[in-house]
Design a protein that fits this description.
The protein is an alpha+beta fold. Helices cover about 20% and strands about 30% of the residues.
């Protein structure tokens, strides 16, 4: 990955898309670590956490290194990205949390933000896709809006693609998938507000 180009893109426009972040074989290896058990994704933090199928219907499983060598390697790559972002953008990122996300046919996640200005410790969102044979008719696009809630772009969840954006600045949604769709959603965090886990995207 061209770290300089990625950091320049985040600095100038707030987001970057990296195709072929991992090879198809590496994506397949990560898919081999998908869990057998999933939990329904919710919205809100701590005591405000709730399940709301009108807002989101995906399922999640939090990433830990003991899920397998491919997961440990992915987390190591995210740690390298954290260090580069701190050095080049001085974001003060302290740690990283991530989960597998599974969208079954018909599942979606309505428009939301991963963080609100001054009210969250999430600073940088990552989404990595695990769908090597994804076709446009399968749906499941990540739709991103700008800070004024105007449509910015649709991103296809094809395997090997990494999406990175500033968590506070871009509302986004996941459009209904027409087949099962997998990804890894993650957040680089600063050491501060609300260190409890939340259940956001993708």
């Amino acid at each position: 990955m061209d770290y300089q180009a990625v950091m320049d893109a985040i600095y100038t426009r707030g987001w970057a898309i990296v195709d072929d972040f991992l090879t198809a074989a590496e994506v397949d290896a990560l898919r081999g670590c998908l869990p057998g058990e999933w939990q329904p994704a919710g919205i809100g933090r701590d005591t405000l956490h709730q399940d709301n199928r009108d807002i989101r219907r995906d399922q999640i499983h939090w990433l830990e290194p003991d899920l397998g060598a491919p997961v440990a390697d992915y987390l190591a790559r995210m740690e390298a990205l954290r260090l580069v972002a701190n050095r080049m953008l001085m974001l003060g990122l302290f740690d990283y949390e991530a989960h597998f996300a599974r969208y079954r046919s018909g599942d979606f996640y309505a428009t939301h933000r991963d963080a609100f200005a001054g009210r969250s410790n999430r600073r940088l969102t990552t989404v990595f896709y695990l769908n090597n044979d994804w076709r446009p008719e399968a749906g499941g696009m990540l739709r991103i809006y700008d800070d004024k809630d105007q449509f910015l772009m649709d991103v296809s969840p094809r395997g090997g693609r990494l999406v990175i954006f500033l968590s506070e600045e871009f509302p986004h949604e996941v459009l209904p998938a027409n087949r099962e769709r997998h990804s890894i959603a993650g957040w680089f965090r600063v050491n501060g507000y609300g260190m409890g886990r939340v259940d956001p995207p993708r």
